[in-house]
Amino acid sequence: MKIVQQEDVNFLLTNRLPRRLATQFVGRVSRIEQPLVRDVSLKLWGFFADLDLSDAKETQFRSVHDCFTRELKLGARPFDPDPAVLASPCDAIIGACGTVEGGKILQIKGLPYALEDLLADADHAATFRNGCYVTLRLTSSMYHRFHAPSELAVTAVTHIGGDTWNVNPIALQRVEKLFCRNERAVIRTSLVESGHAVTLVPVAAILVAGIRLRFLDLARVSRERGRTDYACHAILRKGEEMGWFEHGSTIVVLAPAGFRLCDGVATGTKIRAGGALMRR
Is 268 found in the same domain as 235? Predict the structure, then answer.
């Protein structure tokens, strides 16, 4: 008799359920401010996840959603001051990293996908030929806000509607081109000092799934399929908040040829927002 492995159960529970309905349901429940619902939900979350609120700006929350999207104490995430360094925009586990080869990057070891499919733009993908990439995975208990990796100008945002697959390693091993299937925002930027193009791609996931951006006057981005392009011009200081996820998810960071990974940046390692990610 076959023994059901834990990872099989995880995959079944998170990806074989109706993902959109589950996401909408959890999104509504997470916003309930009734004290009993809030307290029980937070205790369950803390039991199953390594939830550390020691550096949170506030430790009393109106709802689970309020805790998900918490801010940190001032100075809790200092950003590398070297202007040649691209800092990590978020707290994360590095899921994959390396050089863009043949227009492809790795979803996970042994499973490449085309950058053109992620960005939905062949010309934009060509900008990063022989460039550098890092995939940053945020778990559910991590700090969910993300920040400018350098002083930069945001020049455009493309919202691409899609699915809400779980983005944990088990799903990444089993679902090809997963990031290209999920809802995502392609954020085009230009570094103020050097003019290099750097793109961040926040990818939504199952449960809540929302991506919010500080520099666009938008309501919560739509989950409708299809593509919407937004013109934008916002100058952000290094470390300035760009937006947040309403649950754990992923950010793919792309830099052009001439950048390399910083020492210590490797698959499976943890990094905090502000830590050195790439160097020009």
Answer: yes
